[in-house]
Every structure is written in C-alpha cells, then in structure tokens.
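Page 37, continued from 36.
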C-alpha cells in the first residue's frame, strides 16, 4: 500500500483548497493556496498548472503564467501526466508564444500537442492558425521564409519547397491583382483556400 508523506498530503490539501477557491472566484486566496502547495511539495505539477491558469486566464500575468505552466510541463513529463493533459499544456504554451509573436515556437508547441493527442481539435486549429500566420509572413524577411520552409514544408525536398513557395507567392500576387481589378468582389475566399 502506497502512502503519501505528511508534507505531500498537506500540499494536496492546499492544492484542493486552492482549486475550490478558484471555482468560487476568490483568486488571491487561491493563488496563496497554490503557492503553499508548491512550498510543501515542489514536485506537484498540478499546483503549477493551476497557478499558471490563474495567472494567464484570470490575473492577466501571462509571463508568470507561462513560467508556471512550463514548470508544470517539465514535472508532467517526469511524472507521466496523461496525454490529454500534456496536449493541453502544450496548446496553452503555444498560444502564449503565438500571442508574443514567436510563431516558430508556437508551431513547435502545437505540433507537440498533436503528438500527445492527435485528435485534439484545439491543437489542430491552433496549429493551422499559427501556420497561416507564418504563411502571411512569407512576403517579409528572409528569416520568415526560413521559418515558413521549416515548419510548413517539413521534410519536403529543397526543390519541392522552392516550387511550392514560388507557387504560393505567385498565387498571392494574382489574388492581389484580382482585388485591384474587382475591388467589390469576394476573392478573399479564394485567397483563404490557396493558403490552406
């Protein structure tokens, strides 16, 4: 029979109390309980996770939330969290990076989420959204092209990537011409289909 140490039991008590306070909208008290849980058991991934959610979603302290969720992820890998929980962590971290403009890292996190949970609709939608943003950046710097090639085309051969990139840029140019010629027509839908 496996029994928890007194410190671990106390930490879980603080974790549960914090979760209850969070549900009641008592954010400051919940945060204190999560901090107490972590002080009692620094390996308690769920305390870092809940604290990260509270920081990011409620208190608008996103940098602190990212740090807490990253710690939860690290501990989750060690402690073998469920695949769905790991995917959820990766999606949250990817969303933070996307919001910060680090699309390359966001795409990486979203792909990792899909590795843990291939059927995750939120991960798949987030990945598509971030990849579309990368596609839009293609007209920008050389660095944007490199990011686009790496994440969108993956293992494609260099020649194939160049062909696809050239085709995409040409399609983008043609749609721009259509918009100039037919400013009131809805060719934006065509553009969306070309970029997917």
């Amino acid at each position: 029979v496996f029994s928890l140490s007194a410190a671990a039991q106390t930490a879980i008590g603080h974790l549960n109390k914090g979760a209850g306070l969070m549900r009641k909208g008592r954010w400051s008290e919940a945060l204190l309980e999560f901090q107490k849980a972590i002080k009692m058991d620094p390996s308690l991934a769920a305390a870092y996770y809940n604290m990260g959610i509270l920081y990011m979603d409620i208190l608008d302290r996103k940098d602190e939330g990212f740090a807490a969720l990253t710690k939860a992820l690290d501990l989750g890998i060690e402690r073998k969290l469920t695949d769905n929980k790991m995917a959820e962590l990766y999606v949250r971290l990817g969303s933070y990076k996307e919001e910060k403009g680090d699309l390359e890292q966001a795409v990486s996190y979203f792909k990792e989420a899909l590795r843990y949970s291939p059927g995750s609709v939120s991960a798949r939608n987030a990945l598509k959204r971030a990849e579309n943003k990368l596609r839009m950046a293609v007209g920008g710097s050389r660095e944007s092209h490199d990011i686009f090639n790496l994440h969108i085309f993956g293992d494609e051969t260099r020649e194939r990537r160049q062909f696809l990139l050239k085709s995409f840029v040409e399609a983008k140019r043609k749609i721009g011409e259509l918009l100039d010629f037919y400013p009131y027509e809805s060719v934006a839908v065509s553009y969306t289909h070309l970029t997917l």
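The two ends are 54 Å apart (CA to CA). Flag for discussion at group meeting. The chain has ten helices and no strands.
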